[in-house]
Amino acid sequence: MRAIKRFLLGLGMAVKPFSTQLAGMFGLVFICALAWVVPAVAEDAPVTWPSEWQVTEEVDSDGDTTWTASKDDEKGNEVASIDLMRIDSGGADESDLRTFFNAMRTSIMKQRAVEIKCDGGRKTMISSLPSYESVCDLVMVGDPMKMILTTTLTKDNVYSFVVFIDKNVYETYLPHWKAVRASARF
Q1: Cα separation of 32 and 137, whole Å?
Q2: N or C terminus of the chain with fewer C-beta within 10 Å?
Q3: H-helix or E-strand containing 62?
């Protein structure tokens, strides 16, 4: 917990109340990753992306990286996307994993301004590392979506996968996500 607080203080954020600031920090990092980015090369990702998916890599001014792989249908409409975010952990350890996971889920709900109905989450493993994963339904106007959020923590970084799949083609693209997940090397 101290490591997360040091990380927040490094961002210039006061630590009061902590849970509010952590959620705000992830929102800030997520916004920065989307709004203030420098294009980079997607081959640096610690995963293997599905062929025929378009992949981009963005690095913000703090060095945090977001890779996005997206798949369009034959009409050019996006039907699936996989985002992988790598954020400096500030020296956090495994005991902080669930906190990062919950903060990420809260940040996504605020960013998307949609209702997200998630299962309770479960412990899992990615690249031999303890992880948390949750499968969610997004309640929104238009096509219903499924979201999978998976977060893991290394010595130096928090890695979060955010997968969005059109509910109508979920079973078609779920194997793509599973292959990306299996290929992770952190």
Answers
A1: 25
A2: N
A3: none
What is the rounded average pLDDT of the residues 120-127?
A: 90
Decide: 134 and 121 in contact? Cβ < 8 Å.
yes
CA 129, distance to chain mean position in Å, is 16
**67: nearest Cα among 51, 52, 80, 54:** 54
- Annotate 168-186 with b (16+ C-beta within 10 A) or e (fewer): eebeebbebbeebbeebeb
CB 179 within 8 Å of CB 161 = no
**% of residues, the chain, pLDDT over 90:** 46
Helix (H) or strand (E) holding 31: helix 18-35
Q: How far apart are CA 7 and CA 91, in angstroms?
A: 8
Partner residues linked to 180 by β-bridges: none
Is residue 124 over pLDDT 70?
yes
Contact 154, 89 (CB under 8 A): yes
8 Å CB contact between 33 and 46: no
Q: Which residues contact 111 (CB under 8 A, 6 or more apart)?
A: 27, 30, 31
The DSSP secondary-structure symbol of 48 reads P
